[in-house]
Amino acid sequence: MTQVQPNTALLLIDFQNDYFPGGKWELNNTQRAADNGAKLLAAFREKQMLVIHVRHEFKTDEAPFFKPGSQGAQIHSTVAAVNDEPVILKHSANSFKETNLKQVLETLNIENLIVAGAMSHLCIDAGVRAAADLGYNVTVAQDACATRDQAFNGITVPAEQVHASFMAALGFAYARIDSTETLLNEIK
């Protein structure tokens, strides 16, 4: 069994209110994903390992969700930041684009990332690919990620299939894909 190394950070991406029931862009099983993210968060806090929260806001109020300064753009209480945990604000799918995320990781000598959050097919995909391209060893807690149905060319693809497709693609060349339970066992 691989052990989670001390130079590992937990990266929680876009667990924001608009993605939860009652939000402007509800995802499939967001609460279940966030509950798994909360388990990882608790384990990282217990071991005093780095946790980084990433929060997306669009730049204008014309956005369909995550409007600037809105309650929907705030991190959900299930996985909210505490004390001095860094919160990175981004304006695009890629958590590294035009943010200080790379600098934060470099300053703290982080080499490995465990990623959880939303949406599997967009911000998780973009962030994981960018992290791997920057040389980080990335693991995705697949059951701590959520997405929603997608439509293309008149075909609706169910969220479960969207999620599975993106996890399969990331697992092929960009990241290790595993369960929250496996990762929790490694952290302990």
Provide a compact summary of the structure:
The protein is of the alpha/beta class and 188 residues long.
Structural features, described:
The structure is a single chain. This protein is α/β, with parallel strands linked by helices. The chain has a single domain (8-187), classed as Isochorismatase-like (Rossmann fold, 3-Layer(aba) Sandwich). The chain is 32% helix and 23% strand. The protein has helices spanning 30-46, 101-107, 120-133, 159-173, 180-187, and strands at 8-13, 50-56, 87-90, 112-118, 137-146, 150-152, 155-157, 176-178. Strands 3-2-1-4-5-8 form a six-stranded parallel beta sheet. The protein has a two-stranded antiparallel sheet with strand order 6-7. Helix 1 (30-46) links the parallel strand 1 (8-13) and strand 2 (50-56). The longest helix is centred in the N-terminal third of the chain and has 17 residues, at 30-46. The protein is globular and about 45 Å long. The termini are close together. 40% of the residues are buried. The mean pLDDT is 96.
